[in-house]
Structure formats: structure tokens, C-alpha cells
Amino acid sequence: MAKTSPNEFFNQVKAEARKVVWPTRQETTSTAIFVALMMVLLSVFFLGIDSLFGYVVKILLSLAS
What we know:
By secondary structure, this protein is an all-alpha fold.
């Protein structure tokens, strides 16, 4: 592989950076709302699963003693 000079490297970096398409404010807001909603839904789901398993273990332990 041929070596690239630092100047050429930075020119290539700038050229690639110009190709980046940044999200709009609306896209960023809607994505953030979606992530927050999914986070709440999944936390409630895992709370329910954890509570259910805790209840089952408590019952099993009470049967053993």
C-alpha cells in the first residue's frame, strides 16, 4: 500500500466529510422521542418479567422449607 502525505490525507478527510448527510431537526426529534418511548416500554416489560420471576422463586422457596 502506498503511503499518503499528511496534506493529501486531510484533503481526503475533508472530501469525505462533505459527503455526510446530517439529519434534520425534525428527524432528530422524532428519533429521540421514539428511543425514549421504547426505553420506557422495555423497562416496564423487564420490570414485569423480573417481578414475575421473583414471585415464582419466592413460591418455590416457600415450598422447600
